[in-house]
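User: Teach me something about this protein's shape.
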Amino acid sequence: MKNILVPTDFSEQAENALEVAAQIAREHNCEIYLLHMLELPLELINPADNDTSSNDLPEAIFFMKLAHQKFSAIMKKEFLKDIKVHETVEFHEAFDGIMEISKKHGCDLIVMGSSGSKGAKELFIGSNTEKVVRHSDIPVLVIKKKFDVFKVNKVLYATNLATETASSFLEAKRFAINFKASMEVVFVNTAKKFKTSEEIEKRREVFYDQVGATLDDIPFTVRNQLNMEDGIVKYAEDAEFDVICIGTHGRKGISRFINGSLSEDLVNHAKIPVVAFKIG
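Assistant: First, the predicted structure itself:
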């Protein structure tokens, strides 16, 4: 892991994400790309290409200067001391800009902030975070509160044991290895999609064979709960996991994870940080 992207709107939630990213960067000797998107009207970005008054140009310059002032204030934060941070301001729609910059700089991880109170669509930068989590080819870590000390010692991977989720499992395993953390897999058995113990064990054996895992290396737990998100969150909190890992489908998003049963409420309800990995 070399480069971390942190989109920011200079909110408290965004600063919480940046502080976590800084701790990760310090531990793993990474650089941070701190990105602010200026979603200005096209005529303010390229006034020469539009029938608009040149008086509009100072407005764009004003927003640029304001962003740089906020960057300057952030760079004085003690938690960024001795960390290489690249200040990046782009004129794009937020989602497009985040995707473009992450690829341009070869980022290995995106860290984003969330209030954790209004669901995935209310993550900072609005619904753009939902889009990033849904479509990003690289892991997205969602932070919902301030962490004075961010440690990843125990990782929980939630799955329906579908073979198509193997790639996201392997990404989660690499994530755990990078943090020298232990990893466990949880399958939530619900009344609506009830599976017998024999059925679950058979699916686990197939899945573990596919990903080259053993129970000695990666324990497996079945939780019986009314719905999947509650089962995942409750177990993660009861067993004191540091991070919940999930797989997401590009077009279907978090709400379609695990055969369409796990809603975006997982990101909302879990107080624990969530890392999303793209399936496929």
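Now, about its shape. The radius of gyration is 20 Å. Strands lie at 3-7, 31-37, 85-90, 109-113, 140-143, 154-158, 182-189, 220-224, 243-248, 274-278. If you'd like, I can walk through any region in more detail.
User: That's plenty for now, thanks!
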